[in-house]
Amino acid sequence: MKSEGFGLIGSYGAISELEELEFESGFFIVLDGVETDDQPQAVREIKGRFDSAPVVVLTERFDFNAMLECFHSGAQGYIVRSMKAQPLTTSLRLAAMGERVLPPDLVDVFEHQAFTPIVRTSEQSDEDVNRAKLSPRELDVLCCLMAGYSNKVIARKLTVCEATIKVHVKAILRKLNVHNRTQAAIWASSRGLSDVEMTA
Q1: What are the CB-based long-range contacts (under 8 Å, 24+) for 66-70?
Q2: Is the CB of residue 175 less than 8 Å from the CB of residue 164?
Q3: Which end of the chain offers a freer environment for a tag, N or C, measured as fewer CB atoms within 10 Å?
Q4: Are 165 and 184 a contacting pair, CB within 8 Å?
């Protein structure tokens, strides 16, 4: 990271470990390894201790509601860790400079989907999912996409060949009217699907 203009001050296993620390200005905090449901509260705790320090949430999978809550709690960035190294470094640099950093495909979702950032009722979400007419296996694959799994990992989990997963992913993108895997995961997350919800 030093060659990219960053210097690591320290790595801590719990937010409580930061309470007695004193840092000079010019640092930012990357919140990593925190469960999705706990991310907003973790951001609030950090901002309560270091109000002026940018906080970036590094997450395993995209979760629309968690992202909104993290930003409401004071986060400067929300980054899915599957991002390639160079874009990830650039995103961290932008956040450190005070720019708000969101997943890059989010704008495409708003542009190409009849989608608004509002809380949907369970009935509305169920209607959207039913309208998409996804097969049970496609729902399995979609849940895996939400978890950020590659085709190879999904194939292993569902005990099918990778070529079959590619066919399912292509069908999912077509049925949801989205352009890539990230947009499909965002669509599913915003409608309350769970990445651990697997059919038999």
Answers
A1: 66/36, 66/37, 66/39, 66/40, 67/102, 67/103, 68/117, 69/39, 69/40, 70/39, 70/40, 70/43
A2: no
A3: C
A4: no
Instruction: Answer yes or no: are the C-beta atoms of 75 and 57 closer than 8 Å.
Output: yes
pTM score:
0.52
| Residue listed under structure tokens 């990357």 | 30
C-alpha distances out from residue 109 to 31, 86, 135, Å = 25, 23, 22
- Structure-token pair, residue 135: 């097969």
Q: Taking phi first (over 0 means left), then psi (-120 to 50 degrees means alpha), and beta for anything else, what does residue 26 get?
A: left
pLDDT mean across residues, the chain:
77
Residue 163 DSSP SS3:
helix
Residue pLDDT, tens place only, 119-152: 445 565 567 778 888 899 998 898 888 877 888 8
Alpha-carbon distance of 52 to 157, in angstroms, equals 43
Residue pLDDT, tens place only, 3-18: 455 666 666 666 666 6
Q: Are 98 and 26 in contact (CB under 8 A)?
A: no
Among residues 41, 189, 196, 36, the alpha carbon closest in space to that of 105 is found at: 189
pLDDT at 161 over 90: yes
User: Which three-class secondary structure state does DSSP give residue 26?
Assistant: coil
**Contact status, residue 195 vs residue 61, Cβ threshold 8 Å:** yes
